[in-house]
Write a structure and sequence with these properties.
This protein is an alpha+beta fold and 342 residues long. The chain contains twelve helices and nine strands. The radius of gyration is 44 Å and the shape is rod-shaped. The protein binds phenylalanine.
Amino acid sequence: MKNKLTLIQKNSLESIQKCDSSADLEQIRIDVLGRKGELTTILRTLKDLSPEEKSEIGKLSNVVKTSINEAIDNRKDEIEREILQKRLSEEWIDVTLDGTPEFPSDNGFVHPLSQIQHEIEDIFTSMGFSVLDGPEVETEYYNFEALNIPKHHPARDMQDTFWTEDNNLLRTHTSAIQVRGMEKNSPPFRVIGPGRVFRYEATDASHENTFYQVEGMMIDKEISVANLIFFMKTLLKEIFKCDVKIRLRPGYFPFVEPGFELDINCLICGGSGCSVCKQTGWVELLPCGLVHPNVLKQGGINPDEWSGFAFGLGLNRLVMMGYGINDIRHFQSGDIRFVQQF
Ligand code: PHE
């Protein structure tokens, strides 16, 4: 009897150790310790034994029972821990890792036109200019009349534009900010005015109905073309990080006299001629001139005492030159692949 009990114990403990599911362990418990289990069945024959044997076997059977129950419980714990461990290693997520965004640019970034605008603002503020703003919907007065472009002047046709029903217009140039600059400041002063401008324009690779300019105006005593050239050269040197050759050609704008087109030596071919400069070696970059006395008068400034220069820098052209972009329509295309490159 004793031997049978120790054999049951030995076999049970062995199969418990080999077992790897809680359900199987419970089955072992039933098979051995259950009402019809191996051990229970043997113990039923206890009644045929002597009292000494009864008590000895009774004690032993309790030890066996306890050891089997403990072994089952321990093994169950082990199995549960193993399952948990397995899940942890399989389903482990490193929450400190970055996500995988659909676009690498999900964080947002600054548009190349804004980048160049900020750069120009920095350059001019470091030279004592302040930055002015103006509305995109302007009155005829600020956009044309105060700039020496009266009604029916042919210069209006060149900038034919979008009108609102109450006879205001989308500004055609940032020169409207010059007028506001003269109203706000008394000479001497230096201002720049960056902004978006609009024209009724058939679009192609170099024309857009919406583009960006930075206006500049400096009013002081005895301002001459030499001052204008100095500031323009300084600006180009800062932007392109090299000395850029420039030339001035006469250009007509009613609000400057004399007026110029400032060309720069083509940065793509270095001046030898290419498709960007149309084989001329020069690229038209910036209209400018000395402020017309009529404009000064309109702005409440005495032209006998003060003079000044003004310029209107096209930002789209500048970015296109800097990066070799061949179509102005990219800027407003909304194509994320375009803007992502800067
Ligand atoms: N406002 C002019 C344009 O957009 C450019 C310009 C500005 C010319 C200042 C001279 C002086 O065409």
